[in-house]
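Contributing new records

If you add data, match the layout below exactly. Sequence lines come first and carry their own label; structure lines follow with theirs. Keep one chain per record. Anything else will be rejected by the validation script.
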Amino acid sequence: MTYDIIGTISTGGEWDDEGSEVTPPTVLPGWHVNAPAPVEGWEAYLLDPQPSTPFRVYAGHTPVCYVFPDEETFNSLVTE
């Protein structure tokens, strides 16, 4: 299966007209990965609730979104 690795996600933040940061963005906890279908054994990492507007989609199809504690946890699951 092909996974869409998002990694860390930042939201918000504010910059002035000169591009200087006024308010820093908020980094959401975890390592984010999308899959085109549910992955057996990853139920504990399912993002709940699933986003209504995911960062990325698969050719117009809504992905299944997962969040892992860190990149190493994700990597340990895909190399098993």
